[in-house]
Amino acid sequence: MIEKKIRCGWCGQEPLYVNYHDMEWGVPTHDDQKLFEMLILEGQQAGLSWITVLKKREHYRMALDNFNPQKMASYDDQKRNELMQNSGIIRNRLKILSFTKNAQGFLNIQEEFGSFDSYLWEFVEGKAIQNAWQSLADIPGKTPLAEKLSVNLKKRGFSFIGPTICYAFMQSVGMVNDHLVDCFRYSELANL
Predict the structure, then answer these.
(1) Which of 71, 76, 148, 181 is 20 to 30 A (C-alpha) from 137?
(2) Domain count along the chain
(3) Rounded to two decimals, what is the model's pTM?
(4) How many CA atoms lie less than 13 Å away from 83 in the CB half-sphere?
């Protein structure tokens, strides 16, 4: 008899969402390229559901030079106009403008700290915060730490990086383990 896995309720039955939940969400991430991709994608989520962005991820990879921060930092008006015509991504002018600003900020942080990973993980002293939520209603939309990260990133020129987006980013890259305690991934990630 196969035991059914208990998952966080937010991922539902959608295969793309289930795979994201099982394989990516909450896994401590230290690769700068992956961190940059998630930072950009989380900013695209503002005002939308994560599944909307997740379904467009491959389109973003193609449209944004596979999330190459060096190329994105030099996007000009012509490139931004091309992106505004791309139906595969979310066509919001301010979000598209944020690509260049955030790529430039990302590169500046890499130069200052040696890597974005070094900068980012210092906010949690190099170790994922292990929460112990019993229900989805317990999980906050933002925290004081996410607010601190948001303020710091904004001072460095980033946009679409408010505290709610920062907390979603922290969850996605495993800075916090916000899987519910009865989810099969909770203990797997807590033991990393």
Answers:
(1) 148
(2) 1
(3) 0.95
(4) 26
